[in-house]
Amino acid sequence: MVHDILSKSTTMSENSINSWLELVKTVDYNDACVELKKRAKKKKGSLVSYAKRRAKSKARAISIGKNETDSNENIVLLDIGTEDPFIFDELVNSYGLKYKNLHAINVRMYEGTNYGLLPEDTSKLKFNFKWYDGKKIPYNDNTFDIVSLFMVFHHIPYTEQQSFIVEIHRVMKKRGRLIIKEHDIKNKTSLNIIKFEHVIYDKILEENDGDFTPENIYGRSKRKLIELFTDNNRFKLLHHTKVSNNYKAYNRSFYMTLEKK
Ligand SMILES: C[S@@+](CC[C@H](N)C(=O)[O-])C[C@H]1O[C@@H](n2cnc3c(N)ncnc32)[C@H](O)[C@@H]1O
Fold this sequence. Notes:
alpha/beta
């Protein structure tokens, strides 16, 4: 059963989705987790090497999105919702940014959580890391040339999304660049798939002792996300990538670059 679901989830076309969702309702998440762990070992190597590969593509998105006139060693960057240090190593080693100019924040949603690949003692990290309350970004106005927000926005409750955007805008310099990676959640079906994947993903990482509830996803379509960020003349959209038609959920994501007006 779990085999069926997992193999279908990576090869599915849009019209077979409903029958797949019927199967998903019956899934035993613990079984699915054991199976996924086996696959992760076989296919992707360790979570660390998988994270390093993802860090490379995020660092590349940042380098493409940056303002051409900024010299890399002076760029002051904030990554919001950081879970792993590799993106910073990649920015320093491959693109010449400086650790002292790199800042990262996250919210501690669950006590005792090791947050992906962050060490327990974050004071030993080479870049600047702060826990914060998820609402008031702990930096002054006009501080950053670049803000990156990778796979975070769908965790911000609908009622808080507007003020979250205002906060990001506040800490950015004029003509600073905001680089976003997000899911394109354009209907109930894609929302259900993303929820399902989050439950499984959490169990694999054993992050929250299985406390994660699928309701923690506040999906937006790509079109709506662009509308939200460009609303009120705050940001101008400079660039966005295509979303794949493949229903493998993590492929149904895209990058966009916005400029603070
Ligand atoms: C799917 S993970 C993405 C992690 C990482 N950015 C990446 O791309 O691999 C979502 C992250 O968003 C963080 N998050 C949720 N609400 C947040 C908020 N209000 N401010 C900052 N981060 C938040 C979570 O703690 C979690 O680390």
